[in-house]
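Pasting as-is:
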Amino acid sequence: MSTEQWPLRQDPEAPVIFAQSLLEDVGELAFVVLDDDDDWFISDGSEFSEDMEVNRAQFVSLPLHDALDRIPEIAALAGLPTGMAADWDPDRRTWLLSSVADSDNEAEDEEIRQARIAAWTHPGSPVTEVQVSTDLAEIPTEAGTSAGVVRQVVREQDGAWLFVSFAVLEAEEFEVEVLELEHVVRLYPDVVGVLTAAPGQVYDRAEPGSEWELVEG
């Protein structure tokens, strides 16, 4: 694969922690994690352990280009922000995103959190948990399908955030996922303009790319 064709921002030779079982059967794929150092962890469902003997038995290190050859579906995650995970749904050929939970190293977690807060240039906090309609947390891999687009931004009276896609019809019930605000902004940067919304305000827009309109509050 030439440099021009390479779909990911990380170097093709970057090392990836790769589940041993996936060398034999990629159908065992369960999830991936892109950590805060922009490194990939690709798993069959097994978690990385503090016991290095267990890790050596369960995982190997592969160059990223090799991992991509084996599991080309990770190319759909080219824009995945650091600090996020993606569960693989083999039936729907779709990734479901989540913000990575804290590790067992509280001091390191706090250092990373404070660095994110210090680098944040928008209203609010990057680590605030917000709700998004489920399709906004999904990344499809099938040709002809595309990721969601935010249609409505709701700031609840208690200050909580809700982001809803165009796929959700007005007055329709829908499922939600929880992501951190920074991850929503990185996935959908055009919501930045409404992060100044006050509690009780709702912003909407008629079509993707159009101007946000205050419709409530």
